[in-house]
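Input structure tokens:
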């Protein structure tokens, strides 16, 4: 009986140790965003370069939707440079990425030669939700029915005229 108890305790210890390593959280973050032209259309194939103060430099290319993402970045202040043929370079400095955070930096390229640079300082926004989940912040406000009842043009006249 004592041996069975020792084996059970040893098995639990092994299970908890393995699960701790399996479910460990990372402190690395992600920077993503869209690259757009002055009309608001996305720019595909734009080169995006991220660098931090410790010398880390990562590059990405926007996809067909003009979207880029760079993962596994340590926390710190980042500079984003975006460039594409026929556009001025875009530079955004001092973008703070916190540990295990998602940072969105959208770039707007101006038409011109790429030896000119448009510089923006800390224009990024933090996000804990995916892009599609942020649409709920534009919630519609409705008036209570008591404000509309019996008023012409309030939509009730049509409903009442159709009722027997």
């Amino acid at each position: 009986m004592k041996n069975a108890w020792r084996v059970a305790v040893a098995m639990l210890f092994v299970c908890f140790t393995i699960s701790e390593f399996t479910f460990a959280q990372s402190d690395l973050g992600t920077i993503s965003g869209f690259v757009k032209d002055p009309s608001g259309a996305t720019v595909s194939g734009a080169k995006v370069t991220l660098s931090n103060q410790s010398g880390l430099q990562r590059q990405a290319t926007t996809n067909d939707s003009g979207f880029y993402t760079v993962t596994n970045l340590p926390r710190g202040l980042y500079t984003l440079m975006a460039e594409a043929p026929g556009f001025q370079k875009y530079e955004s400095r001092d973008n703070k990425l916190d540990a295990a955070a998602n940072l969105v930096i959208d770039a707007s390229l101006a038409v011109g030669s790429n030896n000119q640079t448009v510089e923006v300082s800390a224009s990024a926004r933090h996000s804990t939700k995916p892009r599609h989940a942020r649409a709920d912040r534009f919630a519609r406000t409705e008036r209570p029915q008591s404000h509309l009842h019996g008023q012409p043009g309030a939509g009730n006249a049509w409903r009442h005229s159709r009722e027997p």
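The mean pLDDT is 77. The chain is about 20% helix and 35% strand.
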